[in-house]
Design a protein that fits this description.
Elements lengths: L1 H4 L26 E3 L2 H6 L3 E4 L2 E16 L4 E5 L4 E5 L8 E2 L4 E6 L8 H24 L5 H21 E3 L4 E5 L4 E6 L6 E2 L4 E6 L3 E9 L11 E5 L5 E3 L6 E5 L7 E9 L9 E18 L4 E3 L2 E9 L2 E12 L3 E6 L6 E5 L1 H11 L9
Length: 366
């Protein structure tokens, strides 16, 4: 189907192209691929002109996205009893500070109904307070006696209301300590829980941390590391500095052969903590480095190539020697020179065209 959409043929069969790479480096020739301008637009083919620019040397490591300190809190059971989740609360549900995510019934417990006892104490304190207020107006009780009665009432009221989410149900409520979303639920409806049991972890995720595990052999390069990029769970390349993040710290001790390097950044892309990440730590930048977008490089059995644009609708595959990568661009050590135009987006379409364009046994002679 694709072959029907793309005008593919060996272009300029008798035409010889000569390409120079870096100084003193001359590449051999490959079959050219014709790819019409209409097809280039249809398949999103983009090009860029090769130029030398600063490029940060990188160290590829593993790591993990973590919540920042203070961005998570645990909602706990205030009393023992049977728990029932509120509404449609699930992991990932959005919640607000102080909202109830579950109710706990204390009816039928061996130690007595805690909520019923709290309610009784509240009602007794309320009755005494209202009576003492009337007596104070008639100067029958002292101001000091009335204030003690008022304090007892306020305390009993606070204790009861802290337990009860809905006075009509008479159940205790498990409330969110902060607004955010439910990161983890530790229980299911109908379970018996003890007072203090962790019910759910609530996360804000306004800021996140990235922990990169730097192998011990790179310890001497720690002071040069200032930035990082990493692949998110969606496959998007995420830059720490490009999103307002910064290096927070690195450990001065080795843990299981690795040195943790910690970055912090605002979570503007909905990244969920906990995921493992492929990380490119950026060290000192070097000037006058030729690099191309990561997607411009095609790998075939350990051989790396890019597609060079020869004219408006003709391309040629060029073998290159690659260096480091920061997850966004790849360093080219040899095979390309400044001023050449290469395919920066859609290289895979050109590759498919190159496979389809040459019949078996067909070769160009240059």
């Amino acid at each position: 189907m694709m072959a029907a959409c793309i005008c593919i043929a060996g272009c300029h069969q008798s035409y010889t192209h000569s390409h120079e790479g870096e100084a003193g480096h001359k590449e051999g020739h490959s079959d050219e691929i014709e790819f019409s301008e209409e097809s280039q637009a249809q398949f999103g083919i983009r090009t860029e002109t090769v130029s030398a620019a600063p490029f940060a040397r990188t160290i590829r490591v593993g790591g993990q996205v973590l919540p920042s300190l203070g961005d998570e809190a645990v909602a706990v059971a205030p009393v023992s009893g049977t728990i029932v989740l509120s509404g449609k609360i699930t992991e990932g549900s959005a919640v607000s500070k102080g909202s109830a995510i579950a109710e706990i019934s204390t009816k039928g417990l061996a130690g007595g109904d805690v909520i019923a006892m709290a309610k009784s104490a509240y009602e007794i304190a309320k009755t005494k307070f209202e009576r003492d207020r009337e007596l104070l107006e008639d100067n029958i009780v002292s101001r000091n006696h009335f204030e003690q009665s008022e304090l007892a009432y306020e305390q009993a009221k606070a204790e009861y209301e802290a337990l009860v989410s809905d006075r009509s149900s008479g159940n205790a409520s498990v409330r969110c300590p902060l607004g955010g979303y439910v990161k983890e639920l530790n229980i299911t409806s109908g379970e018996y829980v003890e007072a203090g049991t962790a019910i759910a972890t609530i996360a804000q995720n306004k800021t996140l941390q990235l922990r990169a595990d730097l192998p011990e052999r790179y310890a001497a390069e720690l002071r040069d590391i200032k930035d990082a990029t990493f692949l998110s769970s969606t496959g998007e390349v995420f830059s720490i500095s490009g999103n307002g993040g910064r290096l927070v710290s690195y450990s001065h001790s080795v843990q299981d052969g690795y040195i943790p390097v910690i970055f912090e950044f605002p979570n503007r892309s909905g990244i969920i903590p906990g995921a493992f990440a492929e990380i490119y730590l950026k060290a000192a930048a070097q000037n006058d480095v030729i690099s191309v977008p990561v997607g411009a490089v095609i790998e075939e059995q350990g051989i790396y190539s890019v597609f060079v644009k020869l004219d408006e609708d003709c391309f040629a595959k060029r073998e290159v020697r690659t260096g480091g990568s920061d997850g966004i661009r790849t360093e080219i050590l040899s095979g390309l020179g400044e001023g050449e135009e290469i395919v920066s987006e859609g290289a895979m379409h050109i590759k498919l065209a190159s496979v389809s364009s040459a019949p078996a046994g067909h070769n160009h002679n240059h």
